[in-house]
Amino acid sequence: MDINQRRAPLAAWVGLDWADRQHLICLQANGSPETESRKLNQRPDALHEWIAQLRARFTGRKVGIAIEQSRGAVIHALMMYDFLELYPINPKALARYREAFTVSGAKDDPADAEFLMDLLRLHQARLRAWIPDTVETRRLQILTEYRRKLVNDRVRHTNRITSLLKMYFPQALDWAGELGTTLSCDFRQNWPTLTAIQQVTPTQLRDFYRQHHCRRLALIDQRIAQIADALALTDDPAIVQTLSMAVQAEAAQLRPLIQAIARFDEVIAEQLTRHPGHTLFDSFPGAGPVYVPRLLTAFGEDRSRWGGSAAFLCHSGIAPVTRKSGKSCLVHRRLACSNFVRQTFQEFAAQSIQSSSWARACYDRMRSRGFRHPAAVRSLAYKWIRIMYRCWMDSTPYDEEIYLASLRAKHSPLVQEPSE
Prior knowledge:
420 residues, alpha/beta, Nucleotidyltransferase, domain 5, 3 domains, 5-stranded mixed beta sheet, two-stranded antiparallel ribbon
């Protein structure tokens, strides 16, 4: 029986259509045919006052609220109250429900609040109340997601720097070391042109590399020799002067991003060691400090949330979508999902190829059958999620040898039999 069917009946159903300035609310009390509508200003005191009125009116009994999101300022405020049951509604589901009654495509916020309330009132048995994870898990989730945004910003700036340098000073891509490092930023800010770097003495260059923890003396000497003999790609002042300023501007924005990412890594590592679930996800080969917290927060802690690995595969975006009509059958990549969660599993699967023999065999097998890299990685991620889901449900760390033995027992082509 569904968990929602075992719960006590709700005292009222509420549809809440939130916005930046005003929230629109539609409420129907259990046993009453009348619906009530009202507006709330986007102010914390107004929202908490309305919730206090709900508690007093229904004497603390459960009130269900359908809302078109699973995170945000409103959700964060509502989850503080134990008598509220929250039902996040997928925006696409609400749009399809609205189209059933407004085929013209017309949209109105008050009507959306009523549709949300109707969805909850009429289809509560098919909806799952949202149970928030613990503070530790939610903290890790926010940290990992924002860290990924900082990494994307870093990549954007490094790509711009690469493009600019290729137009007037391509040698700097070799002499400044790996992009996205403090050494690289300092090199470009101090010497954005070939003329500037060639005016520096070899002793100063050696000191610069050593201060940035570059200890390979042969490499330092090689770079110094190349700098002395290098020729400029162009001497056009219109190009060199303007693009060098642009490179310095990009490097100045890149430095605080590098420092912020390092700080996030420290905090995430500290929080992860305190989380009781880190041991389970640390057992997966190739997870490491980056993917362990991301995998942990993707699964969460509510083991009744999904109802099976198939549901979680759809949530992750890894499971494909099949469309059948008559004799036609089309299979394509799932689009209605969290990009961050899908990215997490795809990137982990790609990383696991270096650490797991059967994962490498699975990937190579897919490539040999003509699949491109993204499709092969998604196929591998599909297998990993099924394994992770079982480990997560059983609270049992992954053991590579046990899984390889299972594959051998099934005579799987993903594992090679030992030669006699």
